[in-house]
Structure of Biosynthetic peptidoglycan transglycosylase:
Amino acid sequence: MLKRTLSRFLRQLWRLVWRGVLLFVLLSVALVLLFRFVPPPGSMVIVERKIQSWINSEPIKVQRQWRSWDELSSSAKLAVIAAEDQRFPVHRGFDIVELRRAWKTSQDGGRLRGASTLSQQTAKNVFLWSGRSWTRKGLEAWFTLLIETLWSKQRILEVYLNVAEWDSGVFGLEAASRHYFGVSASALSDRQASLLAAILPSPRTRSASRPDAQVERRSQWIAQQMRNLGGVGYLQRL
């Protein structure tokens, strides 16, 4: 009797788990499909920052204005690719070359560095929370595969540039351009674009309008990489 009861309970539990998984898959696919055509209303990073501000009793004013692909500076598009993910047009969401390099560096005694692509960063920013747990990394891989399958490369970069964090409460290229330089996202110069890309690794502790020596060096490196990639013509590969 006890054995039959336990067996029935396990079957019901298994059924519930699979129904939950199926529901999650269907909802996540539907959401990604929706955002292929409709601008995301925000991002999980914005939600996270708002919650942190409430917990710490430090009000934060979110600055963000969506801009379409044609309203975003070509220099900024190229600068972000040059800084963050130079194989963005050719990989399928995961840069195997960089992953191997990062692993080899760690095996040789160096610090394990990140090898996150623009696709992964977009998936994380829009759909997930910050952190390094295996659960979040697994969900990041799932959403990365979804957006790489259902969105174009151009759409991935467009969404990334509209949700990336550039300072406390400053999200998206339009808000960042006005925050740091007083210009629209379409009017950024190559210099301004490289400075904005240079602070992305740590946007809340660095400034694009008042760059320190580290930001200045990285900005110059990004500018050189932009030239090495062949200029904004590189964007045709998207």
